[in-house]
Design brief:
Blueprint (H helix, E strand, L loop, with lengths): L2 H14 L6 H4 L3 E5 L5 E2 L13 E5 L2 E2 L4 E4 L6 E10 L3 E11 L8 E7 L5 E4 L7 E8 L11 E8 L16 E3 L10 E8 L2 E7 L10 E6 L8 E8 L6 E14 H39 L9 H4 L3 H38 L23 H47 L7 H31 L16 H32 L1
Antiparallel strand pairs: 1-17, 2-17, 3-6, 4-5, 5-17, 6-16, 7-13, 7-17, 8-10, 8-16, 10-11, 11-12, 13-14, 14-15
Helix pairs in contact: 5-7, 5-8, 6-7, 6-8
The chain binds calcium ion (2 copies).
Pfam families: Lectin_leg-like
GO molecular function: D-mannose binding
Protein name: L-type lectin-like domain-containing protein
Amino acid sequence: MNFYLSIFIILYSVACGFTYTDPSVTNSNLVKRFEYKLSFKGPTLAFKDGSVPFWSFGGSAIASDEQVRITPSIRSQRGWIWSKNTLSVDHWLLDVKLRVTGRGRVGADGMAIWFTETPGVEGTVFGSNDQWKGLGIFLDSFDNDALQNNPIIAVMVNDGTQSYDHQHDGSSQIQGSCIKDFRNKPFPIRLKIEYINQGLTIYINNGISLDDNAFELCTHIDQIGLPKNGYLGVTAATGGLADDHDVLEFLTHTFSDRQALAQNQETTHEQAKKYQDEYEKYERELEQQQADFRKDHPEATTSINEQQVFETEYDREFRVILEGQDQIRLSLTTIDRKMAELLGRIERIASSGSGQPSGVAGLGSNIPDDVARVQDINRVINANTDMTRTIQNFGQSLTDLQQKVNNLQTNLNNKQHDVTGQQPVDSNVDSKAFNELRDTIQQIKSETNILLQKIPDQVKCPTVVSTGDSSCLGSYTFFVIIALQLVIFIGYFTFKNRQDHFSRKYL
Ligand SMILES: [Ca+2]
Ligand SMILES: [Ca+2]
């Protein structure tokens, strides 16, 4: 900014010297409130979709983060933005920050700030409709009647019957005005529009000072007679000449009478107390009726123990864990039985010895009735860990078993070849292989027994109601069933070959 302009601004501020004072400060009976649904301002004025919350706009208007450009500096444009909600109190204050800029020495047409009974529609009066009902404040840039009195800020209230006299800048219709050049100022200009006790006062900060409170009086109109309720709007229009008409901020505050507010609050409190009393009375009556009923019908008032009827979340989770344990235990019992049968068959067929203990362990399947608690959880976890380790050993043993069976099968095949060639048969190799096979299966069975003995000792299962036929299949169960099938298949395949071999040997 150039030096002389800075000096001018300082001198102007000193000369004006007027500082705006809020009505709530001068009149302590007024309580000020910000109306966010009747306001907009940057830096996030518009949503990402370009809309302005609680406002609608159209025509040439475009909303951005920092401002709403009502018209661009293009000829014959009309734009508008209107509030979606009404202003319906007796005292209010509008604080509007705007900017009118253009390349020409003279601009057109101008801008209007509205408070009308219905939202305006696009029209001929600074972008809005004529014959409006309510207040119009015009920032009239173009001097239509050539009286050298523009730009001007003019106030006109219309009852819906008057048509604005454009040719004479509405000079015979306006109720108040001040001649201010609001175009092309270094800073945005600001208007404060007060409506207090049915009197309208307009103050202006003419955009040559950064002092937010450096306002000067534009005009004051007593008993202006505005509608009780109205919509707020800003419109603008360009003609043969054009300006950018931008609104940077539109802030609305309302003022409430402190005494009336206190009375309302008192009424509200009385109403709340009344409702509270009614509720307490109803509650007492209900308790009395319940007591009377229990007295008259003692047989129908069995008390309910919720702990017995309802299962807690803890009990439910623990019951699921124990059910899973029980399923694993049952599956291992089945494996153990199958393994014993298989071992018996091996011993009978191979005739490699007698009196081998079957090794079937007695299984304690009784489930204690008491419900396990926190300390039992640790025991369940430990049991699971042991079981996992045992099953891993089980898998390793199966691998060894498979390898030995493969070796045995290879030997059998070789012997078949020898038998075909009328060679003597050496049964020592068969005996050795079968002994190894039997030992391995015995080892698996022993490990299974260890696992089975651990589970009932370490886990105290609660009495489970209606859990009988659970269809859940755990991962351990799945694994051991697969292993069982593998063992049976290998055993069957091996001894079938063995039988064939014997048959051929004795033919
Ligand atoms: Ca004009
Ligand atoms: Ca004029």
